[in-house]
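Inputs:
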Amino acid sequence: MVKPTRHIASINDLSKTEITGIFDLAQTYLDTLHDPILPYRVARSCDAASGAVLATLFYEPSTRTRLSFESAMLRMGGRVISSADSGASSAAKGESLADTVRVVSNYADVIVVRHPRDGAARLAADYCSVPVINGGDGSHEHPTQTLCDLFTLNKRNSSFKNLNVAISGDLRGSRTIHSLVYALARFGANIILMPAKGLELPSHVFNRLRDEMHCRMTPAQSENGHASIDALYVTANAPHQLSLIPEGVDIHVRMTSRVDAVYVTRFQKERSGGKIENTYPTVNAEFLSDAKYSNASVMHPLPRVGELDQSMDTDKRATYFEQAAYGVPIRMALISALLGLQNNHLLKSYDGGFPSSKALSIDQHLDAGIQCQNANCIVHDTLEQPYVRSKFSLISSVPERSKLRCVYCETDIEHFVVGNVETRKFTANVAQINAATSRQLKQFVFFKDDQAALARDYRSGDPLNAGR
Amino acid sequence: MVKPTRHIASINDLSKTEITGIFDLAQTYLDTLHDPILPYRVARSCDAASGAVLATLFYEPSTRTRLSFESAMLRMGGRVISSADSGASSAAKGESLADTVRVVSNYADVIVVRHPRDGAARLAADYCSVPVINGGDGSHEHPTQTLCDLFTLNKRNSSFKNLNVAISGDLRGSRTIHSLVYALARFGANIILMPAKGLELPSHVFNRLRDEMHCRMTPAQSENGHASIDALYVTANAPHQLSLIPEGVDIHVRMTSRVDAVYVTRFQKERSGGKIENTYPTVNAEFLSDAKYSNASVMHPLPRVGELDQSMDTDKRATYFEQAAYGVPIRMALISALLGLQNNHLLKSYDGGFPSSKALSIDQHLDAGIQCQNANCIVHDTLEQPYVRSKFSLISSVPERSKLRCVYCETDIEHFVVGNVETRKFTANVAQINAATSRQLKQFVFFKDDQAALARDYRSGDPLNAGR
Amino acid sequence: MVKPTRHIASINDLSKTEITGIFDLAQTYLDTLHDPILPYRVARSCDAASGAVLATLFYEPSTRTRLSFESAMLRMGGRVISSADSGASSAAKGESLADTVRVVSNYADVIVVRHPRDGAARLAADYCSVPVINGGDGSHEHPTQTLCDLFTLNKRNSSFKNLNVAISGDLRGSRTIHSLVYALARFGANIILMPAKGLELPSHVFNRLRDEMHCRMTPAQSENGHASIDALYVTANAPHQLSLIPEGVDIHVRMTSRVDAVYVTRFQKERSGGKIENTYPTVNAEFLSDAKYSNASVMHPLPRVGELDQSMDTDKRATYFEQAAYGVPIRMALISALLGLQNNHLLKSYDGGFPSSKALSIDQHLDAGIQCQNANCIVHDTLEQPYVRSKFSLISSVPERSKLRCVYCETDIEHFVVGNVETRKFTANVAQINAATSRQLKQFVFFKDDQAALARDYRSGDPLNAGR
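Outputs:
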């Protein structure tokens, strides 16, 4: 029986078991590729995907992601159709992503989408009858890069558990980082955040690590044993002091502990209006001369534009070209699993999504109630608006602190009021939601604040009690 | 024996028998594609085109046409080379289409051309040793879209005969519509024209339907039985009152008859300088609530940009995504027939072209005599001018009313004078052409009007009689 | 045993034996392609490259070079990944070519690079673990076009020896011409230079023909037996009068000798700021009516933009579309030889490079000593600067006249001074270099002139003698 289609819009759409299953499969593909056809070096391909067609729909420039997906498909004997540039596509005529993927799903068996808007991949998946893979959507996520990163770490270390991974640079705008920190947290690694000034991890990502992935936050220790504000430790499943990320965090790390990997990322100028602080951290031989980095893998998703010095290329710790080299076998494995090639059942039984899949889904008309507060979310794209509604998951992982999470870009709304369309009452005490029946939940409408609710003729009160 | 190459620049390059033959072939490809490879959905490909190469040369943006052609070739085991964007091609260096196709015909077995100029596909065909398929040329034609449209109608209805097809929107600039109305007329369907204000069917298309495809024109009937100016009925092979399309035709239809299909098309802003009337017709649930539309297929070539409401997507009458889904099997069938794959003889014996193929061809040097009056015709492209001459077919389907039809863009010239290079006489009485011998026809030169002829030192008189 | 990778950045990276070996191989591919699959014309492909992947990385627009490489790979059963436009690639994010090829070498078995900078292909080769083929780099070289040109000449003539090849147009900016004149000289053809005014062959190319490829330069003879300044004869291996190319050389040729081929090239406006003299030579029927051209093959690398009249297309001497037709089989042969497909050993044993491979390599830090004086050289590209050093070959083919040749763009520096980092002495008498031991050579540093050396605290003297 044909199972419903799986989509990979977030790294959290894959379970840990599935991820390690993909790694096993990638290793077999890697072994095949590295068995060259003599006398010259031609990588050995296979025919696992013979007859299948991959489409790449890229609304943002890309070399490595698009070409590595295409190479992966071709190395398996599959075929590729490609729209490399929105300027050469129907977007120039004003066509929505939703319509485009509906049409292209007739041309291909699996579609990779890259788009400048957060949440675009999830929207595409909503309208697509074949698997959609997120090739990077705005500042949201880039799950296949994370698969390459994890695979690299996995080959270099015996276990993710208690691995110390320092992450430097633009933690705010880098979709690569967002997928990575979720995955590291879920696999039990410790994360040392070393953001550039003003480019800290978004609070909704940070809070999600803390509230849903059981991370404990602690300032990194300085040499003299005192807590430092220079970096922050995110420890998965460890009973540490709870701490919020400090304001004005600096870029240097003075922790005494061993660092297993330093993950560097470029300034995402296309997401920030192009201005960069001259304090943007540079990783070079001097930075890495500290003893705690003596065995650290130096990683980078590439491209780099100055933040990782070229002189490191010949350093034995340099791992970034190895990461890139795994792009093809990892994507071969993911495509193979998604399409069930060679009778692979890896992604058949799992019903998709990490915790949010169990969350209550709230479907708000765009013209009423609350809207996603992320200006770059796909729901605010005028071309897509006829195809999206304001949809939220209601997250209640921490009692008394319910959140609304946009199902597209996964940005959270922490402060809102809830009204009842029947009783016309609203309250800021959102804890009452937990007391609601599922019938009552369907009557709920969410507003930004009291003013918004009052403007719609709701009165303050207990939404569940018509009388009061 | 290898037959001369067939090209598909117009839907009229295919006979009705050939079109239905392509439908039969497309159905077998569709059945194959829809027989998925289990356990997951991978469409079943074939190897009919194994070893063959398709080139797509697109001088205008496209997603669906280019990708569906490429998918079609790949699903048959063929290969694809692609120039998706003139900005990335030799056009940036100022190379003509004529030279480009001559060169690319060495690289591929069949070439699909899209170009902003009317008639570009015919020019390409003139210089190409392998089959050229028109992927859309200016406002002229888009024959493969029409094959998808007809195939869709054919599956949904028992016969084209007396099918009532209403066509709404930009009938002037839409190449899709021009191919479609020719095909509908030839297959005996009735066409209800519902143009946006100022975007009526070009007069040369209208007159060709009337004069050469035996259509009778009648104003659509209003509810009270009176003729309405709101829409126009084009009835193939029916003895109705002859009528020209009225000036200022409005967009609403108040006919009482059953409509079998409503074909909606977007405003072609790239062909009209971008301005759009705010009376551009929108097809939505309200419009379609009229009883006569209760069983109408709602069709659209896509992309849509507002003229077809998204709320229709879940309506059972919505047929536009079905149209798009047939893009691949239809194009598989066309390529297969053109290349004679699998010993297919469908397109072997027919010598190409609809009525114009029997017309006299008039070859005028660009620097003398009459020129095509369509400013967007490929003959006026400075890059192509060294490669084109002013060539016309002499159409005499209605006695006393000969026309000159540009062989590239198929725009007609109805008013002209004819001179004889030997007698140096000219006349406006073009009926005399019919009396000429074929030797005399070779001596004819055509001018825009008396002034143009006099300016070239021709005198008024009987061109066939040197004495007078 | 797997041999080190060969790269083709210059036509001089191939020996004459290898070039003729490629022609033999190309002929077998051509025979296969021309054996069509009946009943219709589908070129016959093969599966020599089955499973192999070609990447095209094009930082400049191209139709014929990119598509002919892609077709070549596909006709051999290989696969292609393509970045047709730097606007759609990581270059938009500011990634260097060096990093890009390092990454893409994981995705493909062979990479074709086109780039606006001279020497870009050599830089790419330095960072690439798979073969790099130069698809055109700035004004430097275009070796695969030259292979097509030579193959065409070879088919039309019994021998290159004493073949008279006239070359007309932009000899300065045309990379095609630079590769061609090297090859013609090496194979013993005579070259008649007919540059457009101000667009003469660059002096370093001219001098290299003279000094390293044993050409003798002589003014072409006019009708009256006197030397003409209208064209220049470059005679390989012939004991003629040595002559420099005259200033203000005109475009007409009035030589009495037989010309076997006229090679026409367009003005390279993208390399010259777009201005063109109205004296740019046009080759048309009148020009070719001179008796000496009566059997000349008229050649052009295409695209043409006016310098070669379309009326020649039907002339039996027109050879340019034949050149283009050989693009696919020639590139099939080159790829096949580079990858050692079908156990081909053609390019296995040769260690790469023409004379420069035996030259001393001088490695200068960019921040010290002399730099390449070609402003368009890849070493001056800010994106690439972290990846390049000022590297020169020391060319001493003519005694007392040593030159420094940039290893990237191969532009020569004829005037410089040499210092010794140990003795801190420098001299303009570069002949002393020949007396140096290899240990002393490693101590040499090169400066532009006395001032530059003095500014770095070097003193005038014998660099090899610390005492003086």
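Remarks. The longest helix of chain A spans residues 16-33. The first strand of chain A starts at residue 53 and ends at 58.
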